[in-house]
């Protein structure tokens, strides 16, 4: 799977080249350029904050795409529609996640922005993981974003994180209970990691219980996408030749059973700190000499 989305610049550069920019209002322009004082003046004079351009872009979209948090706050306070959709079907929350602006994301969530869109569409969590915007992804998950949101083209956020080589987003999703073996067209996140030759992602997914023998629509296992003799291929061979230890299998089984509650449950167990760290896929605590 190859990720080819070009946002957040899509509606700035391309739309400008097609002539859409001239159809935008002065409110659009002030919001996009971060001119908060001018935007406040326009709102005070009664300018429409929900006016949409030819591509259904509202001023709130413009502000979010460019991470203009002050303008986002002004527009929301003036009644901007928090879940307005543009011609691409994206909401301001999607745009803020694509832009990597936690401040904009927080504002939108405070005003009730929907974190889970209709089925089979690119979600705000997909956008955050596509760009590797860990802070945005964390906020979304804290507000109930589904780690199993499924886009009919790109799969789950875990597929997107692995295809985009974003290790920390992938680990965040897995710790939040994402299904490591979720498939789109039979392709798993492990196939994505193999295609990008990311050894750290391959190791992470296998440790979380990824199925080394899962086959995609081409009847290929993930290892078959790693060039022979490459570090990724050698990593796969190691795991195929060296089964997980009993400890690792128990950990993976517990994670499957507990799902998103795993970290909370582990932290409450009366176990040694090193064992809790192991179960939580966290670095072991330091050992001090006595």
TrEMBL record:
Annotated ranges, domain SOCS box: 233-285
Keyword field: ANK repeat, Repeat
Keyword presence, Repeat: yes
SUPFAM superfamilies tied to this protein: Ankyrin repeat
UniProt pathway: Protein modification; protein ubiquitination
One GO process term, biological-process aspect: positive regulation of protein catabolic process
Keyword Repeat (UniProt): yes
ANK repeat locations: 55-87, 88-116, 120-152, 153-185, 185-217
SMART domains, sorted: ANK, SOCS_box
InterPro entries tied to this protein: Ankyrin-SOCS_box_domain, Ankyrin_rpt, Ankyrin_rpt-contain_sf, SOCS_box
Assigned protein family: Belongs to the ankyrin SOCS box (ASB) family.
The protein's name: Ankyrin repeat and SOCS box protein 13-like
Organism expressing this protein natively: Hippocampus comes
Taxonomy of the source species: Eukaryota, Metazoa, Chordata, Craniata, Vertebrata
């Amino acid at each position: 799977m190859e990720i080819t989305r070009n946002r957040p610049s899509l509606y700035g550069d391309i739309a400008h080249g097609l002539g859409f920019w001239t159809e935008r209002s002065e409110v659009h322009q002030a919001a996009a350029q971060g001119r908060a004082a001018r935007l406040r003046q326009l709102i005070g004079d009664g300018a429409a904050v929900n006016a949409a351009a030819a591509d259904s872009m509202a001023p709130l979209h413009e502000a979010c795409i460019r991470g203009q948090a002050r303008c986002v706050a002004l527009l929301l306070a003036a009644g901007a529609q928090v879940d307005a959709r543009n011609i691409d079907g994206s909401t301001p929350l999607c745009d803020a996640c694509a832009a990597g602006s936690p401040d904009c994301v927080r504002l939108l969530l405070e005003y009730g922005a929907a974190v889970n869109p209709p089925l089979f569409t690119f979600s705000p969590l997909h956008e955050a993981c596509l760009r590797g915007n860990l802070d945005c992804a964390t906020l979304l998950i804290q507000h109930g974003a589904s780690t199993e949101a499924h886009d009919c083209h790109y799969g789950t956020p875990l597929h997107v994180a692995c295809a985009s080589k974003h290790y920390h987003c992938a680990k965040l999703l897995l710790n939040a209970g994402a299904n490591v073996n979720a498939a789109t067209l039979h392709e798993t996140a492990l196939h994505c990691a193999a295609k990008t030759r990311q050894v750290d992602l391959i190791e992470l997914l296998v440790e979380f219980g990824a199925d080394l023998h899962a086959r995609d629509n081409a009847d290929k296992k993930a290892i078959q996408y790693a060039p022979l003799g490459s570090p990724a291929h050698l990593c796969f061979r190691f795991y195929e030749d060296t089964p997980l230890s009993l400890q690792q299998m128990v950990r993976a089984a517990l994670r499957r059973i507990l799902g998103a509650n795993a970290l909370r449950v582990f932290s409450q167990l009366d176990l040694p700190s090193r064992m809790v760290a192991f179960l939580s896929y966290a670095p072991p605590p330091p050992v001090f000499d006595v």
